[in-house]
Amino acid sequence: MTTTAADTTPRPPAGRAGYMPGEPGMWFFIIGDLFIFAVYFVAYMIYRGQQPELFLHSQQFLSPGIGVINTLILLTSSWCLALGTEAARKGNSAAAFRLLAATFAIGALFPLLKMVEWVPKLAAGHSPGENLFFMYYYVMTGLHLCHVLLGLVIIGFMLRHLRHRASPDIKFIEAGAVYWHMVDLLWLVLFALFYLMR
Amino acid sequence: MNIATAALAGTLADSGRPWYKSPKLDQYICFWSVPVFYNLFGLVFVPLSWMMPPRSPTNSIDGVVAFMQSPNLLLATTILILCVALSAVGNAVYMSQMRRMAVSPVLRYAFVVGAITGAIVGCLFPMFCFGLGAFREGYDPEVLQLLYDFGYMSFIGCLGCFFLNWSCLGLSILLDEKQTLPRWLGYYTIWQSVTEIFAMTLWVSDSGPFAWDGVMTFWFNMLLYVPWQFIVYFCIYRAIRQQPESELDNAPYVGGAARA
Amino acid sequence: MTEYLRNPLTGVWFALTAITIFSWWIGQGQGSAYQLDAAITVSVLVMAALKAVLVIAWFMEVRLGPAWLKRTTYGWASGLLVLLLLFYWLRV
Prior knowledge:
A: 7 helices; B: mainly alpha
């Protein structure tokens, strides 16, 4: 196995073929997940339209401050991951490892902040059963949190993969990265729908 | 005989021989029990008894009593007693493919536990609940309400077991280097199993989109589950066809000197 | 370290952060009363879609991808935005 890794940075495509990061089967899952969440987002908007006062009133109990910090957390961890993927392609495994470690460390703050956000709310009596808004809120952000936790596990595997390897499996790194970016993407919409919109 | 020749011999033998002499006859019998099971299941639960789509959790007590004492339910449960065991055969068809995969057996053990639990909770419990209610006249409406709730909670609530077993199937497919089943099917399986988690909300909501008959918990799940179920069995059929006969468990015993 | 600052991905991150903070500020509204507000909703959703497209194009590298992938992912973002605005408008 060669120790000099080639620069496999994708060039802008000459034709329509393009370069697909990760493996094709994985995009089935990514696009499928985006589709599922999109259906839930639209359903949320429809149900919100039926009881706007209830939703507006309940929305006040959320913590937009923690929400925006969580958004910035995910965006920053995605940025580190994108830089790390590029570094891995260039053969710079050490830099890639550091950047992915940063991704993990920053990303791990998300579930912690989620607990800081949820526990006082639950203690104050705002449970999923309170009304439709809170049900949607806990279910959607809860499902998203499960995706975040799975993403952290995947990044953990990527870190282990990168640790002692001069030429990592780029497709695997890209696949994991695309998954994490999708998790980030979903949160951007969740943040707008639950915390910001009126 | 090397692997390539054996595989070729297997395929040729498959086509040049009557179906009842195929060494894969046992697998095909089990496989074809699946559409029989699903058709019976569908007939029993839908047009015969209208157990499905689920009645509303907020049904009035009179509505509940009328539904639970309907004689159609008795006919439905009679048929169910006969066909519920076919679900085990259907799951065994999955298992026979998972056995071929180059993954640890722990995944198929977990699969079969999830499948058994799901079948007991999702099929047997509703059968007993709805059949019991119709069995005698004169049950207290409160008792019928309890059986009604119990039956539907079990039917929809068993999805947690299926989340486990479909995840094991998906993971097996993805980790299997032999690609017994195609990789995209592994991603598809894990994707559709995610929707089964939404069933959790039925305990908290008795109306609206998160109730057991809700848009989010029931209808959207069905929309994603049904096509996936068809596609999975289609892929399994293809996998059975493509399996080299020399790999079969009955290979040493099936007649013919050519199959060594 | 400085090569990261010159990397276009860092520029994308700055843009995403700026849009996020701006949309959060808009989402705070004028006062403490939470009322239906189409201006806030529309601007917040449009900004979310914009951020989504940036993440898809630059972080997920779809800008380098095959045409069908671009159509599907950008289509998802724009279609979702249209549907959300539509159902918001139908009830407001």
